[in-house]
Write a structure and sequence with these properties.
globular; about 240 residues
Amino acid sequence: MAERKFDEFDEFVEDYRQVHNENIKLSGADSDYFSRYRVEEIKRVESKKGSTDRKIKILDIGSGDGNAARFFIQYFPQAEVHGIDITEKVVAKSIERNLPNCHFQVYDGQNMPFEDNTFDIVFLVGTLHHVDKNYHLSLMQEALRVMKQGGRMYNFEHNPWNPVTQKLVKDCPFDRDAVLVTAPYVKQLEQNAGFKNCSTHFTLFFPRHNIFKPLLPLEKHLSWLPLGGQYYILATK
């Protein structure tokens, strides 16, 4: 059996969003909703630091077809966004979007094509569970290298402690090789890589169907509860 390094998505390039939307119908929202949701969460945190209206650089590791970049340039209008991915076809899709102040490129999964201390914000979503654990530490060390001193990393992952998340991942065609990682594991990983102030925030506790909308404002008070559908680790350099 060939060594698993990074999961490939070539076969899903043309209909990735359609497949994803079909897979997450149970959640009551579509792929765009969750892309926007995560960027809104970052903006909420960054607003306290005054960085939403400054000229900052954002790196999206595992940027796929560039969907998150659409929302970064909306919520961070002064930002310059860079996305990197290992798959040429998905990077080509992101370039086709022709998004202003956004730059996408293929990289080898090991050496990020940027100088030290380049980015104010580094963003990952669902990346680690598609990468062999033997490469997790070096990936985090590279992320740390390209961040500016005082920069922040937002590392979003599916929460394996949530049974609905487990089902969605199990039923998703492009997650067939995914190995979910727990929040304590990721937090320790980032600390081992040299990140500071690592904090865990659980999100997405309720389905997005209309009947649950009155409950959604409660989620910001539940970030400590390890039952959310996703979580992110916020860390600094």
